[in-house]
Specification:
The protein is of the alpha+beta class. The protein has helices at about 20-30, 85-100, 130-140, 200-205, 210-220, 225-235, and strands at about 5-10, 35-40, 40-45, 55-60, 70-75, 115-120, 180-190.
Length: about 240
């Protein structure tokens, strides 16, 4: 069996209004074991559920040390897990994200996003005692996507795809997670031609009078390279 958790880059960690998310955090995650990890994230998707302000996405442009932000790895409540229990975790994560009861638990992609996974490269080495389990995990994962899943939908402009056609996130395994074997996360489609500037992000929050997502992310340790500039613009508007 393998140890894992969920890499969270947005409201899944702090949303107190969505009952599915509260139940999911309480029943399936070890919230006391949160670990801050570097992650290639930025604000990039217009969220209708957040008053059409920008929400966080994974981005290959941020796959450089100076541009990486910070996400939160929350371990599963009961580690390690087998493939049967992992199926439970993927189902519960999708329920928390999509707020739907009648979803297809065997399909990891949907209209605006998809589940993604990253694996500790140590267990992908043939000499690892977990090598066979790592291969079984990869086989399980790649069978769970429909033909409608297109990694090109998870990039902007000429940047590289941040996710592979097998649903694997393309970024270096964080040193902070050496004791874990894999993580799962939700990747969302930016659906943009260019990424928003800090000014675009701040002005949309000001005009739409909604800044909870940004400030809750910051307070909970979910950060990105534009945060300081966004905050400066927000503060200037209030003076």
């Amino acid at each position: 069996m393998l140890s894992g958790g969920v890499l969270i880059i947005g409201s899944l960690i702090w949303d107190r209004e969505n009952g599915n998310r509260i139940r999911w955090r309480n029943d399936f995650l070890n919230q006391a074991g949160q670990i801050k990890v570097p992650a290639p994230i930025r604000y990039g998707r217009v969220s209708r559920g957040r008053c059409c302000t920008f929400s966080m996405v994974f981005s290959d442009e941020c796959n450089r040390p100076e541009l990486k932000g910070t996400g939160i790895l929350v371990p599963f409540a009961n580690n390690p897990v087998d493939l049967r229990m992992l199926r439970v975790h993927t189902s519960e994560l999708m329920k928390a994200e999509r707020n739907k009861v009648d979803l297809d638990e065997n399909v990891f992609n949907w209209a605006w996003g998809a589940l993604a996974m990253s694996v500790n490269p140590v267990i992908l080495n043939e000499i690892s005692p977990k090598y066979d389990e790592a291969n079984n995990l990869a086989a399980f994962w790649r069978k769970s996507y429909t033909k409608g899943f297109n990694p090109e939908h998870y990039k902007v402009g000429n940047e590289e795809c941040i996710i592979s056609k097998e649903g694997i996130l393309k970024f270096s395994w964080p040193d902070e997670l050496d004791n874990y074997d894999f993580l799962i996360a939700t990747a969302t489609k930016p659906e943009r031609i260019v990424y928003p500037t800090a000014k675009n992000i701040a002005e949309r929050m000001l005009v739409n009078e909604y800044s909870e997502y940004f400030f809750q992310n910051s307070e909970n340790g979910i950060l990105n390279f534009q945060d300081d500039e966004i905050l400066e613009i927000m503060n200037a508007s209030n003076n």
